[in-house]
Please model this.
Amino acid sequence: MNTVADPLRAPVATRLPVADDFPILARPVHGRRLVYLDNGATTQKPTAVIEAEARFYRESNANIHRGVHWLSQHATELYDAARATVQRFIGAARADEIIFTRGTTEAINLVANTWGRKQLTAGDEILITTLEHHSNIVPWQMLCEQTGAVLKVAPVNEIGEVELDGFDALLSPRTRLVAITHISNALGTVNPVAEMVAHAHAVGAVVLVDGAQAVAHQAVDMQALGCDFYAFSGHKLYGPTGIGVLYGRAELLADMPPWQGGGDMIRTVSFERSTYAEAPQRFEAGTPNIAGAVALGAAIDYVQALGMDRIVAHEHALLEHATAALSAIPGLRMIGTAAHKAGILSFMIEHIHPHDLGTILDSEGVAIRAGHHCAMPLMTRFGIPGTARASLAVYNDDTDIAALVTAIEKAQTLFGTRKKP
Amino acid sequence: MSAMDGNLRELYQEVIFDHNRQPRNFHDMPEADHHADGHNPLCGDQLTVYLRINNDVIEDVSFVGHGCAISTASASLMTEAVKGKTVAEVEALFKDFHALLTDTPPERDFGKLAVLTGVREFPARVKCATLAWHTLHNALIGDHDPARTE
Model:
């Protein structure tokens, strides 16, 4: 990559007029302006989302699907409307293909415990990639222990890409499930998911996509991707924590046994036998996170009002700008330079451990993630204990990148390792 | 200089940088009679502490591994502090050192270990400064499960 000696001459970043929508960005940290670059962990929430959740409790709170009273019906309508909002947002064919979960992790565990336990037997194979987050590794390891299935892992190359040749080489008629991330949380690599799905389907495998890092940063369409399951979290999409989504194709959901038993997921119950509701209720036992679902709907409305095309263009320009500005720092090494990347910058600074860097950046008000990013096998692949990671969102701009660069230089000065570019 | 900058300089003192760049007693020890592994899964910090104990006195101590500047410097300073002490003295020092970072420390001379007092202002980093000590403790009591501070 060409490095740019003067960060000011780095590609021009754009700005979206959204900072005022996020009240937390006005609070100082350690007496400094908060520069929030930990969006891969969770995004901040716009007033529209905070208000939607508060308004639900102020004006609409009741349990759903069970009251004959007006408020219960009102709450049920809001919950169902949120489901329809999610359906349209990800291009699902039907609203009953949308299951509300606590988040991506629970969505993946749901598939492992229902579809996986029913379908897999000894000798079947599950194919994942080296890029995966622990939440798309460990549930499959647990399923393999329970069923005797075997976990296979597609390699990544030096720049953090899963090459299709290496992926295809591990596909076979034994492959029953392919579980892949859409965008790597640690490196920002965007996988060619539609192609991988087509190749997996060609050998008869079912495909689950971990979309936790994708839904807030690019348009996601179930029909275009062709996947069978898609999992994501609300809180990385400007929504609240504790709410997420599992999309599942209707034919697959219809054949899946329930996971958790309880209220709302049954049709009839007697002490001899219970029968189960259809999807999605079959997979939503107990009182769900109603206010969270409603607020997730508000988050999607916020993103769509802003416009996914604008978000993609802004974050792409900012990624280019930030990549050039960081690459100009002597002693900085980028980890993960895939040709197709989302707004995640993972890097190492010579002689400064990521945790020391994280503490020093924090003292400047700059919030980043330092460590293995719940992707220990990927760190092992690169022979590193972890990285420092800056991850972008709609409210970040070039002033945030300038603050990041200044803070890194401060760390190098403190450690006595700063070199002039 | 802001209060935070002051805290940062208290944390990253020259002695810390010195011990991070050139850790003391940083080697394995084939003749060790005690050893234990330490691991902070959330950080990825990893180290092994080796001991040679004779008549209840720590005759030799060393470590290998990798971690942040605080964890490496703390391990290095620890090896210097415990060499020549009895097992009981070392366990008491660990208790007092832990209090120095997290609680009300007793009146005592901490020697060079006092440079780690700055960690008090950074609760997220206490685990970095204590990993080596937890590992040393496990080596002394013969616990072969990796020590963790998380």
In short: Residues 70-90 of chain A form the longest helix (21 residues). The CA atoms of residues 318 and 364 of chain A lie 21 Å apart.
